[in-house]
Amino acid sequence: MKRTITYIVITAFGLIASCKRDFLERDPYGVLDETDYFKTDGAGLKLVTGCYQPMQDGWGYTVNKVAIGDESVDNADAGGSDPGDRPQTTEVGRGRPLSSNPLLFETWSNRYRGIGRCNIALDALKRERSNLVENGAPLPSEALARYFAEIKFLRAWYYFDLITVFKEVPLLVAVEDPSTRKGKASIEELRNQLYIDLDEAIAEPNFPRSSELPDNETGRATKDAAYTLKARAALFFAGLMEQGKMEGDALGEYLIAKEMAGEVVNNGQLQLLPDFQDLFRGDYQVGPFSKECIFGVLRKFDPAFGLAGDPFAIMNVGRNNVGGWGGNTPTRDLAAAYDPADPRKMFTIISHNDIFKTSSGGEEIHNYRGYFNDYNLQQSRKAFVPQAYRQQNDLQRSNWQPYWIRYSEVLLIYAEAIIRTGGNHAEALNYLNEVRHRAYVTTSKVDEPAIYRLFATGLKAIDEATFASRYAIKTSDDILQAIKKERRFELALEGFRLYDLIRWGEYANTMKAFHQKYGFADKGRDASENSWPFPIPQIEIDRSNGVLVQNSNY
Prior knowledge:
Layout: H1 2-18, H2 21-24, H3 34-37, H4 43-52, H5 58-71, E1 76-79, H6 87-94, H7 102-128, E2 133-134, E3 137-138, H8 141-166, H9 187-203, H10 223-242, H11 250-267, H12 277-280, E4 293-295, H13 312-315, E5 327-330, H14 332-337, E6 349-351, E7 355-357, E8 363-365, E9 378-380, E10 405-406, H15 407-420, H16 425-442, E11 450-452, H17 464-471, H18 479-491, H19 497-504, H20 507-517, H21 538-543
Antiparallel strand pairs: 1-5, 2-3, 4-10, 6-9, 7-8, 7-11
Protein name: RagB/SusD family nutrient uptake outer membrane protein
Keywords: Cell outer membrane, Membrane, Signal
Main location: membrane
């Protein structure tokens, strides 16, 4: 027995000793080093696609952006099953959130994930440009140039999201060592970098206009998206400058907004859809592919490719028999602000007891009682996908998608910038009334998938003469105030309201008045001039070992 064991051990040792190098040192299967990866077909485009990924995060981006932009102010409440369901959103809405607030941390981490991906992609594309392949051939220089422009736009987009919430944040424009800790850049430094990225994207001849984008590229950024983001940012910076919250020339910023928006209006070959309903009917077969949609990350439910619908479309829909989770409940204040003759009210807000058709031809009566909506008794129509447009009546099995830039916003930016720069009031009215004309004259007065809509009651066809006399804004009106109201009516529940209130210097007064009038969930109770910028997440300050300093108002 001992001899047998010895023989086996010796034999095994001999085999090991006699093995050749190519047996023991084979390269692992299924593993590519970085250089080899960039030689694979389409590697460059995959890098670009990765920069969009944080925007595809339904919870971290879509739900988060509208919660910050609308549910924290007077357009909507957090909703949910009960007061303890979404306390992070309710807390921001009260006006004095803690630095441990999960909604703010989610904003910070998601946007910096996007910025990090953009920095990695820019670095890799510069370094590996000679190795990149597309369709079996070297990547054309034109395509590479487009990639650079697209990524710079996205980096600016993520930074502007952070600026509107926190004001001043660390500025990262290159791949950093993970151990690097940075303090906050000034708002002026952030503005300069944001404009550098957008200007370089705009100047790139291979960055297409929205009108040139084929349907199979819907959702990709364009030159018009960059123009609009710069115009949007310029309005924000101008407002902060007027309030003494940053250094700079407010008039100069308004001129930038006018120039950028004017370029889109005059040369973008874009237009409004005649019927507002086509944007939010729920089928998403028209709006995302129209000349009105300038930027919106396309979503599609397709299990064959592992694609799930956006959770926004179940989170922000009524509970009970409707099947949603009851978030994003439009306020009484928002509903009361609309003119009863404006059909956008119906296509923005669903009321308790409204009735929609089911996929089997029956009735779905919306019951909004018994959860954290008993006060408002309203849900978002912009979030709701009726049964006819879902698979298996599942709210997440749909093609719901957000619109992050619509042409109607550009028209309103242009009108405001014209007024702010002392321009021709009649010209500004043309753009403002173009948005209102679509709403009152050409938008349907019937919600097609519905059987009964409370806010459809009394809606009537409005002819041109009636619009001109009763509903068009006139030179004798307070045009700036009319533009402010129009932005709320047109863009409600799409994530814009906080941005507007902050830049207009109206956040504190609006929210204090809201609390005094309604008082629901103590919204606006602690609102003051020191509420914004919101606090930097404490966990980020701790990770920085004190290099990152909390905002002075917290």
